[in-house]
Amino acid sequence: MSEEILKIAREVTAREKPEEALTIILRRYIQGRIAECEEEIKKFESKYGMSIKDFYEKLGRDFPLTWEHERDYMDWDWAIAEIEELKERLKKLEKYGS
Question: pTM to 2 decimals?
Answer without folding.
Answer: 0.86
